[in-house]
Specification:
The protein is of the alpha+beta class. The protein folds into 2 domains: 2-140, ATPase, nucleotide binding domain (Nucleotidyltransferase, domain 5, 2-Layer Sandwich), CATH 3.30.420.40; 144-293, 2-Layer Sandwich (Nucleotidyltransferase, domain 5), CATH 3.30.420. It has 8 helices and 17 strands. The chain has helices at 51-54, 78-96, 113-124, 136-143, 184-199, 205-215, 246-269, 273-282, and strands at residues 11-15, 19-24, 28-34, 37-40, 46-49, 64-67, 70-71, 74-75, 102-107, 130-135, 154-159, 164-170, 173-180, 201-202, 226-233, 239-245, 284-287. The strands form 5 sheets. A 5-stranded mixed β-sheet has the order 3-2-1-9-10. A 4-stranded mixed β-sheet has the order 13-12-11-17. It has a 3-stranded antiparallel β-sheet with strand order 5-4-6. A hairpin with a 5-residue loop joins β4 and β5. The longest helix is centred in the C-terminal third of the chain and has 24 residues, at 246-269. 38% of the residues are buried.
Length: 293
Amino acid sequence: MKLLNLNSRDLGIDLGTANILVSIHKRGIIFREPSVVAIKTNTEEVIAYGNAAKEMLGRAPSSISVVRPLKDGVIADFTATKLMLRAIIDQVTKQFKLLKPRVVIGVPSGITEVEERAVQEAVISSGAREVYLIEEPMAAAIGSGLKVEEPTGNMIVDIGGGTTEVAVISLGGIVTSSSVRIAGDELTEDIINYCKRYLNLVIGEVTAEEIKTEIGCATPFMTELRMVVRGRDLKTGLPVKKEITSSEVEFAMKDSINKIIDGIKQALEITPPELSSDIVVNGIMLARWRSFS
C-alpha cells in the first residue's frame, strides 16, 4: 500500500476516544497518552494535555475546562480537538525537528463524510501539510501482522474507547464491517451506574476505570476478585469505602458486552461463505482497548 510507504518526516496518528497515539516511520510510537485536554475558558490557552490533563479531571476550577474532545470515535468538540492536536503535533515536531509533516490518521469505518472533514480540518489546522485517512480496522489489521493483501478472509475486532470496529478483510480491502458505538467508555459508565444503583456509591470516571482494569471480566473468574473503592455515599453525602467484586463488575458490563458480540455476529452474517470458511480456520484477531494511566 503506497500510502503506508512513508518517510521519517511523516506521522501516524490514532485519534482515539480514550487515548491518542503518535508514531514516526521506523521510530515506532513516540507519544501515547489519554485524549484529554485542559483549556483556560476565557483565552482558549492549553494548560495541559494527555496524562497531565487526565489528572485534572473532576478537580479543576471553573476557569479551566478539562474535556475529552472525542466521543464514540469522532470529534465531539472541534475547538478542543484542534487545540489538543496542535499542542501534541507542536511537541512532536519540535522534539524530532519535523517541518509540516504529512499525517496518516485512523478513523472509524462507520464515519460520515461530515465527520471525515472535521478530522481533516482539525489536523490541517494543527500544522500538518497533508492528511490521509485510513479506516481503523484496516490499520489494526496491518499493525497486527495480518496478511491483508492475500485472497483470504481475516476478521479483526478492534475494541477502542468509544467504538468497537469489526471488519472482514481480503485482498487489501474491507469486505464487510460493523461499527458499534459501545466500547471501553461505555463499560466504564456501566460500572459508575452499577455503583450508584446497587452500592449507593458515587464514584468518578478514573475510579471506575481502575475497577475495570483491575477486576473487570466478561466471564466469571475461577477465583473471585475483590477491590475496595472510595467514593461518596449517595444517602449521607459523606466519603466512604466499599467493596466490589469481579462478579459484580461482570454483571454491570454484561449488557454492553452482549451488544459488542451482536456487532460481531452482524458482520459475520453478511460475510460471503468463502470468507466465512477462512475465518473458521484462521479465527478472529482481537485488538483490545487499554487505558494508559
